Each structure stands twice: as structure tokens, then as C-alpha cells.
Amino acid sequence: MRKRLVAGNWKMNTDLNDGFLLLKDILNEVREAELEKCDVHIYAPFTHLKIFHNSLNGSGLMLGAQNCHQEESGAYTGEISAQMLASIPVQSVLVGHSERREYCGETNEILAKKVNTALANGLKVIYCFGETLEQRESGEHFNVVKQQLIEGVGHLTVEQWQHVTLAYEPVWAIGTGKTASAEQAQEIHEYARKIVIEMSNDGVADATRILYGGSVKPGNAGHLFSMEDIDGGLIGGAALNGESFAGIIRA
Ligand code: PGA
């Protein structure tokens, strides 16, 4: 039985003061009882991580970063390494979000390296994948998803898979208010789980959580999360409000 996971991706939102208030709001809303059934992660901006780590101590929520560099260290001005994150300590990192694929030129090959570097530094990884509207309309979505999975996480060992969660985020549903229907999402989640069997084995596919992301709200979360292969959500906009984020966790 896979434990549910709801992860908030704050993206480039909130300054330190507003972020701290939002975190307090979330902590007030999320009751311990809910954490027994559902893991909760917060992927905050880099600038917030140290102070958030102190505030989350003992709360049961896991803290994550939204990116790390693929190399261990060196002359990469402005970048943040996995080791730096681990030293905060942060427990998890998002890899392969579509906004980074699109705006920062992150290819599957770079993302595979990021996954390795993050895992080597003891971080957990949420690996994001998903097709654009154009790719869906031209019927390429299954192939795109397969390639993103095989090239990004196809090399992982059974041991490494224990620290990896997948997140299907159709680009056309992110921040657009257009959610994939629960059936559309389930179709890809089921397919992705089959690819995990091909890349690893049945046991890994059974144990690996696959989240859905893209305009998840308290009102649609329950239906999405009721699908067999949808194990929770990666939440953008609705994670920026304590009440709506908690509403999704309750769902
Ligand atoms: P959204 O973003 O919930 O605002 O659509 C999801 C994401 O990008 O992770």
C-alpha cells in the first residue's frame, strides 16, 4: 500500500516574511491525524530553506528545494549544489519540473545527472515529467512520457528507487486552471507504472508513488486521488494558501 503524498511547490513566490506567515498558516491547518495517512512536503525557495528547517522541526512535514545543480561543486556561479541543500538539511528536491525544462533548457540527460547527484547526497527526489499541449494533440504523449522516464530515471537501481517519487504534470494543465480529467491522468499514471516495471521490476513499480500535478484544487483533488495509480499531488497555485493546501491534504 503506497502512502499518499501531497507536495507544495511554491515556485518563485513569497518573500521571506510572507513565506514564513504562509508556513505558519499551513502548520496550523495540517493536523497530526492527517499526517498519518498522507506525507506532506514543502518545496520552498532557496532563501527560505534554513529558517523553514528550524520551524518545521518536529512537525512531520518534509522540506524540499525546487532544484539543484547536476555537478557536485565548482565554477557554476549562482548555482546551488545538492550537498549545500543536504547541509541545511533539506530532505528532498524537485527534478525536471516543466518550467525548468522549458525556461532553463534542462534536458533528460542533464536531469538524469541531477537525480544521481541528489541521491548521492542523501536527498530524496521528485522527478517530474509530462507532455505539452502540442504533443498531446499530435498523439505523441505516450512516447514523450516514456522517453522522459527512460532517459531521466531509467538507470536507477532498486535501492535508488526507494528514494524517488514520480510526478506526472501535463504542461497544458499547469497554472492554466485546466486540470487533466481523473481518467486522463489515470491513463498516463498506469502507463508510467508499466514503464517502471520495464525499467526496474514489479516490486519497484508497486512501491513507487506517482503524483499528479496541474491545477489541483480542494474541489478536484478527491476525484483525482481516488484513481488507482494516482498517489497524491504536486500542487502549485493552491499550495500558496494554507486553507486550500490543507483542503487538498484532507482530500
Ligand atoms: P499548479 O502547478 O498547481 O499551479 O498548476 C503545479 C506545478 O507546477 O507543480
Features of the shown structure:
TIM Barrel; 13 helices; alpha/beta; binds 2-phosphoglycolic acid; eight-stranded parallel β-barrel; 16% strand
In the CATH scheme, what's the topology name? TIM Barrel
CATH class wording: Alpha Beta
Bound molecules: 2-phosphoglycolic acid
State the share of residues found in helices, binned by percent: 40-55%
Number of domains: 1
* End-to-end distance: 17 Å
User: Shape, please?
Assistant: globular
Number of contiguous helices: 13
Q: What is the strand tally? A: 8
Question: How do the SSEs run, as a string of H and E?
Answer: EHHEHEHEHHEHHHEHHEHEH
The pLDDT mean sits at: 96
Radius of gyration: 17 Å
Across the major sheet, the strand order is 1-2-3-4-5-6-7-8
CATH homology superfamily: Aldolase class I
Major β-sheet annotation: 8 strands, parallel, barrel
Low-confidence stretches: none
- Content-based structural category: alpha/beta
Percent range for β-strand residues: 15-25%
Based on the coordinates given, report the CATH architecture: Alpha-Beta Barrel
Describe the 3D structure.
The model has no long low-confidence stretch (mean pLDDT 96). The protein is globular, with a radius of gyration of 17 Å. It has an eight-stranded parallel barrel with strand order 1-2-3-4-5-6-7-8, surrounded by six helices. It is an alpha/beta fold and 251 residues long. It contains 13 helices and eight strands. The two termini are 17 Å apart. The structure holds 2-phosphoglycolic acid. 2-phosphoglycolic acid binds at residues 9, 169, 174-175, 213-216, 234-238. 2-phosphoglycolic acid (PGA) is lined by residues 9, 169, 174-175, 213-216, 234-238.
